[in-house]
Automatic annotation (TrEMBL):
This is Substrate-binding domain-containing protein. It comes from Pseudonocardia lutea. It is found in: Cell envelope. Residues 1-24 form the signal peptide. CDD domains: PBP1_allose_binding. Residues 47-306 form the Periplasmic binding protein domain. PROSITE patterns: PROKAR_LIPOPROTEIN. Keywords: Signal. Belongs to the bacterial solute-binding protein 2 family.
Amino acid sequence: MRVHPRHMRALGAVLTGTALISLAACGSDGPTGGAAGGDASATKPVAAVIKGLDNPFFQLMQDGLNAQAKTAGATVEVQAAQSITDTTGQAERLSALSQQDFGCFVVNPISGNNLVQGLAQVAAKDVPVVNIDSPIDSQAADAAGLKVATYIGTDNADAGAMAGDEMVKAVGSGTVAVIGGIAGDVTSEARISGFTEKAQAAGLTLVPTVSADWERQKALTSATDLIAAHPDLKGIFAANDDMGLGAARAVANAGKSGQIKVVSVDGNSDALDAVKSGELTATVAQYPYAIGQMGLQACQKAMSGAQLPADVKAPVALVTADVVDQAKAAYPAPFAPFENPLG
């Protein structure tokens, strides 16, 4: 099993659908935030703003937030964008929440700066901000006077590198294609960078990267074109599982199943099934469920006045056919032990 313990971190946080949802822990008369001491701010509800629930990755982030809220006796109000490209709608949701009395904000921005304006209003009230999964642009944050309490997320360059190592192992040599998410997206670029470094170091030939906006159907179209343009293609790396599954469908449609290896990143349920069936060679699993839990845990600590680490790495693990049963049994939680610096 190729699990990297240094990347493993913790569980903790809450989320709920596309509408506002208030959650109170079972057996509690009111929100406590799970915080130590008598500081009133430690008992305030937490607001969470995440990407669109049209992607299963963020549905799992929601599940992790909900689970942690119940465990900790916390109250959380969550809003999600309508889609993973709905930057304006997500910013409007945050702006509305920023006018209310929350003790902490958990934010998962669609882009590096689409939530900065709203978060500046939050920062002006000295309310802590916990950034999860997709980083806020540091220059934009500085310009707005926004200080983030902590960032919790996958080391995406490392995840890409793990995928690169597996691709090299799977194909040995030859031509490989890369399908990225939204052009310029920081997460996509980091994964592609990590993958590219490993692939080129091993002598693989890479064709120019194409973007499929994180979407399965667009990746299907892109992969179909790539396969037609490069008859000698031996592998496709996709920066997320939805695109990886689209690429795998294109490979099957072309009658090249098993001949063209497909490796992606995320480790969602469909991808695990595809690894089990052989449609995907591997997926680098990250754990949005754990990231959601960790986000709420971080808010609880911040509201209690605790100093948080500036950066916390979330768990990742390579899932191939030899460990996929273990991964499926533990899903959506990590299938190997990991350290939680926030728990």
